[in-house]
Specification:
Layout (H helix, E strand, L loop, with lengths): L11 H10 L2 E8 L2 E8 L1 E5 L2 E10 L4 H4 L6 E12 L5 H5 L6 E16 L2 H16 L13 H9 L1 E16 L6 H12 L4 H13 L4
Antiparallel strand pairs: 1-2, 1-5, 3-4, 4-7, 5-6, 6-7
């Protein structure tokens, strides 16, 4: 991933937060037939402040777990908030017109080595962790134990576990860091006036990254 220095996010905690908040990853693998991509929710495990693994599962019918090249690294891409930035929000547009549109976004790339885990006990623990993370914001969180045990066993038989041992983790926060403050403020105001929730999220990110608060 191309990351200009001013767009790089070195704070590992910020990267971990995006992975947890937006766990549906684009998982890119290499197979004998070429590059493949699947969309898989992944659970991040951190030990002593360092990301260790990503764990997930795929349908047993999904060829990913049989066709990936085990000697090649895989890439998991986590997409955070993103928003179109119109030059109409920049004060510079009124002065010189020398502005163009852009797209602001947050993304985390995780490289690692993938292994397949076809084990019912491991899958049950994984599903409990993944579910607990996603259900945490609900008033009455659903748990795996809420479903009949024989039903869950049947569901577990229909999936295969995957685990990625993380070798590198990088983040890109493209948040108008290359614009003068007045243009940053104009873009934040424009995003805040939008009805789209994701635009409000990007406005908050821009405010924090560029220290506009």
């Amino acid at each position: 991933m191309y990351i200009p220095k001013h767009f790089a996010e070195p704070d590992k905690t910020a990267l971990y937060d995006i992975v947890r908040a937006y766990p549906l990853a684009t998982l890119v693998t290499q197979t004998a037939d070429g590059v493949d991509a699947n969309h898989v929710p992944l659970h991040l495990t951190v030990q002593n402040g360092t990301a260790i693994t990503l764990s997930g599962h795929v349908a047993r019918a999904n060829p990913l777990w049989k066709t990936y090249n085990g000697s090649k690294e895989v890439l998991a891409i986590f997409h955070g908030p993103n928003a179109y930035i119109t030059p109409s929000w920049y004060p510079e547009k009124a002065r010189s017109g020398m502005v163009v549109p852009t797209w602001n976004y947050v993304v985390v790339h995780v490289h690692g080595n993938l292994k397949v885990i076809d084990d019912a006990s491991w899958l049950r623990r994984h599903l409990a962790l993944l579910t607990a993370q996603q259900e945490a914001s609900f008033k009455k969180p659903w748990q795996v134990e809420d479903a009949p045990s024989n039903f869950i066993e049947k569901m577990i038989q229909a999936v295969v576990g995957i685990e990625i041992n993380i070798t590198s983790l990088t983040g890109k926060w493209k948040s108008s860091q290359n614009q003068p403050v007045e243009n940053q403020l104009g873009a934040v105001q424009g995003l805040q006036e939008s009805d789209a929730t994701v635009n409000h999220q990007m406005a908050s990110i821009m405010t924090a990254v560029n220290r506009l608060g």
